[in-house]
Amino acid sequence: MVGDGLNDAASRAQADVGMSMGTRGNLTREVSDITLLDENPAKILSVIRFSGLASRIIRQNLFFTLFYNGLAIPLAILGVLNPLIAVTAMFASSLSVIVNTLRITARNRTGMGCKPRGIPSPELSGP
Fold it and tell me: Considering the entire predicted model, what is its pTM?
């Protein structure tokens, strides 16, 4: 549900994903999962594409973790693999997840124009 005023706040609160356009009122921001800082409707498509990217990266991170740890740990337990190599594989798994997740951060810096709930916006913060 996407809205820009107080009259649709209840609908956005009940929706699976609620988006507010603009930053007019506190209630509008509080009931929304995503707040678009400007009132450009094209940003809605950017948010949907961004969520698809985030979902893909989460699935890739799960694959990296399960591949490295699911392969190296059992082999180390069976004595086929040196435990030090298994620890290195676990570190490589964590490192690949971090590097892959940085793709989300890099994409967010390109100017999505949205802020997730719970992250204060600089122009809304007090002195």
Answer: 0.62
CA–CA separation, 90 and 73 (whole Å): 8
Residue with tokens 């698809």: 52
d(CA 19, CA 76) in angstroms, rounded, equals 48
Could you please report the per-residue DSSP string of the chain?
-EESSSTTHHHHHHSSS-EEES---HHHHHT-SEEESS--THHHHHHHHHHHHHHHHHHHHHHHHHHHHHHHHHHHHTTSS-HHHHHHHHHHHHHHHHHHHHHHHHHHTTT--EEETTS--GGGS--
pLDDT at 59: 92
Domain ranges of the chain: 2-124
CA dihedral sign of residues 124, 125, 126, 127: negative
Stretch 2-28: mean pLDDT: 75
